[in-house]
Design brief:
Belongs to the WD repeat PLAP family. GO terms for molecular function: phospholipase A2 activator activity; ubiquitin binding. This protein has about 750 residues and is an alpha+beta fold. The chain is about 30% helix and about 25% strand.
Length: about 750
């Protein structure tokens, strides 16, 4: 009777070692699911269950791919030594998560859509939402190696600091678990509960129940690289001896007596190096003989060392069998005391001493770690604080430390003592940068003054009964069933202008410009010509020379440039001007200029007009081409303006996103759509203004129309749950109608 597993077939597709494996759950297309593997050759191979060759290979990482996690709707998350994680949908990379400063050893997709976790050798864990970093979790003191999901709100991490931490996704560390004596490589959760298992570099598999280490299983290999809990509760571990072992609680699946005996023999022949500290400090001269094994152990997994004919052997107590099982020979331990072998590991850190302190007979005992370089009084104080013990014991504990370290203190006690209540990093009220105290008021005031983006010209005119203008907002019940909102085919522009006001402001500010930047009377006449040619759509076409004057004006200092920027915003709609600024030869300076004005620390008027100018670039072929080439830069800069409180800026930002959606709908570029979806999702979180929301909804609808991949991606980012609330907005009706059309697609 074979109770084990048999090899079905061997898959190969990597040119070097395979470092991670993950199952992609069944879908309509692949009813048996898929298998993804990440390799040292920087690639990810995707296999079907019945073919030894890959279905396809995902290329893009620049170093070993060492972690994979699959999500709903066909998404796959990968982590690599190249410090990035990537999100894949089917055979395409959708987005790259950048922010860690060292290898990403662990990745997990959370059950709540759009949320992803990455754990890195930079000692941090990051939470990502729709491709942007939302939060960084700090606490581990060495590389984070593994992650496991407990629920929508909680997860576990394990690290090279020999600790496991339980976190709430809000950022709080809820608990730290200690037990391993060396690196922890892997962690896996039991189905339907919070118990879990871990494996590491201390030759052990540990089973944790109710927050305690309930069982330790030793293995005849130094490194136990990975563990996983099967649906039936069995535990599978893979170790450095190339063997996969399965442990079970079920009697009918237990291995035969011969197999168990063989495992025990293998374990008893293992040689354990005392330097690893897996068994604590060892002094061979002080060890008892074999008679020591006649006493029963006190708990499962307890280890005991004995000396037999000059050899040191290690045994572990098994409660279920009521006997000591040999787990190996300790080699090279002729009198290796703490002093010669160095430090003791406690809670994943090295110390000169770790004492066990019994405060009273009946209570528990406490571990007190101590380094010779520390102040015994401060150590005693911190120990009492940490374990919630009576401060009356202070003298006693400090004296205990001094007696037991034979006075080996190295410090002058008075200077080292820092007040434990006011140590560095304490909270000082009012020290946080209060950036969002007052909603920023419009920088220009006073009656009849030209104010860019004041309410009078906030909406872009797009024709009569168009939902963007709010003019003639239609209410006919018959039209309700027809989707007039998306996919949008043409760019939305900002056309409203008052040329006389703009020129008046320009002349006024020209007076305060420095000598070399002042415009001459001729310059001002040229700008007036341009403005009236553009606004009254006269037959005249602005010449290249006239545009040089405009270029001179838009390079004015930040505090006076806005009327010139407004002329640029209007001019760029003209095909000739669009061609002039967006063509191959001049576009670099043009884009750099507009990006400079998008700086979140800059003036709001400039931010607004730069965004509107970018939106208006989309009217002509040259502008569209340039905007698509520079999409990554422009979007990354523009999204930083989401956090302000100016609704006109929000509307312009939403319009820019919408114009990108219009272009992306035509060319069907899935990476571009992924970036756009991420922007929509991120901006939706903060924007209140319903006009901005409406434009984002149209952008979303346009992006996902006629594209099943984009629909899948939007679902995996959790956009549907984000927009549901807008289906019930009563005024303006265009918001809820458009929202419902989008939800139908999702």
């Amino acid at each position: 009777l074979n109770r084990g597993f048999t090899e079905m077939h061997c898959m190969s597709g990597h040119s070097n070692f395979v470092s991670c494996v993950c199952i992609i759950p069944p879908s309509d297309l692949y009813p048996r699911g898929l298998i993804a593997t990440g390799g040292n050759d920087h690639n990810i191979c995707i296999f079907t269950v019945d073919n030894p060759a890959p279905l396809y290979v995902l290329k893009g990482h620049k170093n070993t791919v060492c972690s994979l996690s699959s999500g709903k709707f066909g998404t796959l998350l990968s982590g690599s030594w190249d410090t990035t994680a990537k999100v894949w949908l089917n055979d395409r990379c959708m987005m790259t998560l950048q922010g860690h400063t060292a290898a990403i050893w662990a990745v997990k997709i959370l059950p709540e859509q759009g949320l992803m976790l990455t754990g890195s050798a930079d000692k941090t864990i990051k939470l990502w939402k729709a491709g942007r970093c939302e939060r960084t979790f700090t606490g581990h003191e060495d590389c984070v190696r593994g992650l496991a999901i407990l629920s929508e709100m909680e997860f576990l991490s394990c690290a090279n600091d020999a600790s496991v931490r339980r976190w709430h996704i809000s950022g709080e560390c809820l608990q730290v678990y200690y037990g391993h004596t060396n690196y922890i490589y892997s962690i896996s959760v039991f189905p339907q509960c919070k118990d879990f298992v871990t494996t590491g570099e201390d030759r052990s598999l540990r089973i944790w129940k109710q927050g305690e280490c309930a069982q330790t299983i030793r293995l005849p290999a130094q490194s136990v690289w990975c563990c996983c809990v099967l649906d039936n509760g069995d535990i599978v571990v893979g170790a450095s001896d190339g063997i996969i072992r399965v442990f079970t609680e079920s009697l009918e699946r237990t291995a035969s007596a011969e197999e168990i005996q063989a495992f025990e023999n293998e374990l008893s022949q293992a040689s354990i190096d005392p330097k690893t500290g897996d068994l604590g400090d060892i002094n061979a001269d002080d060890l008892p003989g074999r008679e020591h094994l006649k006493e029963h152990g006190t708990r499962d997994g307890q280890t005991r060392l004995i000396k037999d004919n000059g050899k040191v052997e290690a045994y572990q107590w098994s409660v279920s069998e009521g006997r000591w099982i040999k787990i190996g020979d300790v080699v090279g331990s002729s009198g290796a005391t703490q002093q010669t072998s160095g430090k003791v590991l406690f809670e994943g850190k090295e110390y000169d001493y770790v004492f066990t302190i019994d405060v009273n007979e009946s209570g528990p005992s406490y571990k007190l770690p101590y380094n010779i370089a520390e102040d015994p009084w401060l150590t005693a104080y911190n120990f009492l604080q940490k374990n919630d013990l009576n401060p009356m014991f202070l003298d006693q504990v400090a004296k205990f430390i001094m007696d037991n370290t034979k006075g080996q203190t190295l410090v002058n006690t008075s200077t080292q003592f820092s007040d434990p209540f006011t140590g560095a990093g304490r909270y000082v009220p009012g020290s946080s940068s209060g950036s969002n105290t007052v909603p920023a008021a419009d920088p220009f005031t006073g009656a009849g003054r030209y104010v860019p983006g004041s309410v009078s010209n906030a909406v872009a005119s797009v024709g009569e009964a168009d939902p963007y203008t709010g003019m003639g907002a239609y209410q006919s019940a018959a039209a309700k069933t027809e989707n007039i909102y998306f996919p949008k085919k043409e760019a939305v522009t900002f056309d409203q202008a008052n040329p006389t006001q703009i020129l008046g402001k320009l002349k006024e500010l020209n007076g305060s410009a420095s000598e070399e930047q002042k415009l001459t009377e001729d310059d001002l006449i040229i700008l007036e010509k341009i403005l009236f040619a553009i606004c009254n759509t006269s037959a005249e076409t602005p010449t290249a020379q006239q545009l040089q004057t405009l270029w001179k004006a838009v390079n004015w200092p930040e505090d006076i440039v806005f009327p010139a920027l407004d002329i640029l915003r209007l001019s760029v709609r003209h095909p000739t001007v669009n061609e002039n600024f967006c063509s191959e030869k001049d576009h670099v300076q043009f884009i750099l200029l507009l990006l400079k004005f998008l700086n979140p620390k800059g003036k709001q008027a400039n931010q607004l007009l730069a965004l509107r100018a970018l939106c208006n670039c989309f009217v002509s072929q040259a502008g569209q081409k340039l905007m698509m080439q520079q999409r990554d830069e422009i979007m990354t800069q523009a999204i930083e303006l989401k956090s302000g409180s100016n609704k006109n800026i929000h509307i312009a930002l939403a319009t820019l996103t919408l114009n990108y959606a219009v272009c992306l709908h035509k060319v069907n570029n899935i990476e571009g759509k992924a970036q756009c979806l991420s922007v929509i999702s991120t901006v939706m979180e903060v924007v209140q203004d319903l006009e901005a929301i409406f434009r984002l909804l149209v952008a979303l609808g346009t992006l996902i129309s006629d594209d099943t991949n984009a629909v899948q991606l939007a679902k995996s980012l959790g956009v549907d749950s984000q927009i549901k609330k807008y289906a019930s907005v009563s005024e303006p009706t265009k918001v809820n109608e458009c929202c419902r059309f989008v939800l139908n697609l999702l």
